[in-house]
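User: Reviewer 2 asked us to show a designed sequence for the structure in our supplementary figure. I'm pasting the structure tokens here. Could you produce the per-position amino acids so we can include them in the response letter?
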């Protein structure tokens, strides 16, 4: 037990720790450590050992009673003895901490526990050490008379200052002036790029102004290392930094006799590893094959007429093959790649929805088809002047929403991908059997999804793979909604020895030019797949190949996840790969 050190006025002698008897004479009243006529450390060790041993015994007995459905209030002689020992040791521990420890803090300072005798130099060091340990100096026996402490009023509270910002390291007077103007609302934040002519500087000033306005730090959001010029006017407005997402590689995926290393940007553990295992199973079984069924992006404006009859007249006009050439001429003049394929109309009272489908080359094509539709509307206005255009998009397209029209008619690229997995590979790589996979697929992906009223969701995890590849390759992540429409089929072959597995995805919306595909990181991932930019030989070939790779990756992931579920390994694998032991909040960006 610690005591106070006191300056001695007598001759110098070494420090001497007083005995238990000396200490007890300085205290008033009995102590818990006097329970046994033994040295203090032996008494403490004995009671602590008894306490924890009894706790362990009682918990073990409690668990056995619960397992055996024995009432907890029925106790044996050993239980009674254990409870008595628990109470006794617990009382001792309370007494030890409640009496000895408190006395050492309150009463001991008034007694000479340590006889400190040393030279003046050692005394000064000792007092300095004590001053550090006891900031108020209350435990020191000072000879000076006590002084009345002056009450100092507390300073006024100040607003919490945000963490130090690593960038910019210095702000010149001009930047400070602009920041203050943004904070005061005099300069719109969105106008910084045009006013300054420097996108990086604009992002830094906007970031600093945001931190001052919100009193929140953005120190964990990177700012350096990004080309802000590349996103100006097409990818993101008012940037203050960028988010880091790790990119993993699954594969090689053997698809149509070619190997592909598939980039996947994700923060979900197990996803890349699972897809990689599926790629291995496909590769060992001879690879997968894909077929492109349809390639057409859609846009569906909504127009209104005075009567339903008049709306129907336009419907019949557009669906008449004799009028298709003149309408397609008006549509196709907007782009050298956009070519009108067909128009499907739906009537709701006097409102008409016209679903235009067209090819878009290697672009995803939403802007391309919208420009073509606008040209057609302008053309139709001449023959139907009473047509009231309510919107260029009437949700009959249908974009970024699950819909039956996309599930049935398709949107973007419609792809089917299949593989025959050998029985040995199912057993050795996937750790399950063909019969279990076929049964699970029927009950989960087909029957279970039907019971849930799923729309295009007859699969295990197509959305996982579509999202990861879309983010890595610069696609529109929101289009994951309809692009993940997928039905997974599994059937036994060769008397149940081998497995036929396929995925049918009617609306994969991808492009290799435009949008986020031009950014450096996303462009590198497209280059890894061999589909960067527009195809010079065949327009649209790169985008179609990317859609086939997406479907092949979904096939691999479906195969692996379904096998993990059939083998009962889903939870254990996620506990192993999806639980970080590092505090990532402390990792610097």
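Assistant: Here is a per-position design you can include in the supplement:
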């Amino acid at each position: 037990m610690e005591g106070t050190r006191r300056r001695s006025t007598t001759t110098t002698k070494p420090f001497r720790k007083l005995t238990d008897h000396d200490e007890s004479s300085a205290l008033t009243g009995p102590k818990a450590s006097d329970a046994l006529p033994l040295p203090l450390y032996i008494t403490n060790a004995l009671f602590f050992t008894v306490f924890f041993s009894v706790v362990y015994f009682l918990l073990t007995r409690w668990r056995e009673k619960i397992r055996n459905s024995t009432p907890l209030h029925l106790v044996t002689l050993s239980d009674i003895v254990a409870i008595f020992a628990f109470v006794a040791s617990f009382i001792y521990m309370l007494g030890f901490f409640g009496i000895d420890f408190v006395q050492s803090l309150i009463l001991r300072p008034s007694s000479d526990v340590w006889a400190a005798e040393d030279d003046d130099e050692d005394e000064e060091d000792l007092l300095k050490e004590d001053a550090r340990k006891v900031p108020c100096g209350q435990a020191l026996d000072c000879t000076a008379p006590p002084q009345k402490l002056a009450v100092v009023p507390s300073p006024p509270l100040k607003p919490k200052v945000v963490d130090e910002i690593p960038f910019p390291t210095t702000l010149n007077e001009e930047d400070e002036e602009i920041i203050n103007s943004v904070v005061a609302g005099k300069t719109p934040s969105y106008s910084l790029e045009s006013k300054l002519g420097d996108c990086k500087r604009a992002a830094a000033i906007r970031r600093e102004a945001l931190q001052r306005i919100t009193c929140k730090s953005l120190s964990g959001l990177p700012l350096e290392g990004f080309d802000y010029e590349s996103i100006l006017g097409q990818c993101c407005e008012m940037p203050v930094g960028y988010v880091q997402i790790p990119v993993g590689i699954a594969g090689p995926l053997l698809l149509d006799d070619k190997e592909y290393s598939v980039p996947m940007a994700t923060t979900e553990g197990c996803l890349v590893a699972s897809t990689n295992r599926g790629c291995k199973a496909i590769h060992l079984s001879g690879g997968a094959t894909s077929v492109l069924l349809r390639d057409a992006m859609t846009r569906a404006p909504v127009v209104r007429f005075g009567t339903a009859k008049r709306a129907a007249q336009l419907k019949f006009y557009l669906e008449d093959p004799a009028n298709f050439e003149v309408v397609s001429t008006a549509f196709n003049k907007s782009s050298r790649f956009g070519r009108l394929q067909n128009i499907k109309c739906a009537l709701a009272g006097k409102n008409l929805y016209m679903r235009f489908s067209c090819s878009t080359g290697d672009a995803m094509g939403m802007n391309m088809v919208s420009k073509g539709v606008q040209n057609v509307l302008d053309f139709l206005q001449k023959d139907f002047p009473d047509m009231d255009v309510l919107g260029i998009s009437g949700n009959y397209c249908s974009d970024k929403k699950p819909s039956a029209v996309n599930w049935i008619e398709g949107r973007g690229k419609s792809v089917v991908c299949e593989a025959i997995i050998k029985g040995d590979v199912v057993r050795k790589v996937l750790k399950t059997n063909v019969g279990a996979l076929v049964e699970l697929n029927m009950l989960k992906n087909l029957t279970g999804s039907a019971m849930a009223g799923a729309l295009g969701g007859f699969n295990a995890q197509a959305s996982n793979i579509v999202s990861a590849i879309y983010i890595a390759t610069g696609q529109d992540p929101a289009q994951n909604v309809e692009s993940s429409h997928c039905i997974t089929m599994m059937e036994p072959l060769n008397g149940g020895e081998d497995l036929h597995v396929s995925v049918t995805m009617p609306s994969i919306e991808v492009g290799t030019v435009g949008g986020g595909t031009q950014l450096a990181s996303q462009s590198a991932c497209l280059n890894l797949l061999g589909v960067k930019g527009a195809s010079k030989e065949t327009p649209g070939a790169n985008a179609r190949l990317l859609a086939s790779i997406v479907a092949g990756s979904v096939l691999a992931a479906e195969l692996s996840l379904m096998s993990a579920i059939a083998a009962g390994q889903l939870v254990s694998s996620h506990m192993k790969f999806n639980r970080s032991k590092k505090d990532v909040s402390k990792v610097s960006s």
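For the response letter, you might also mention the following. DSSP finds 19 helices and eleven strands in the chain. Residues 136 and 152 are 15 Å apart (CA to CA).
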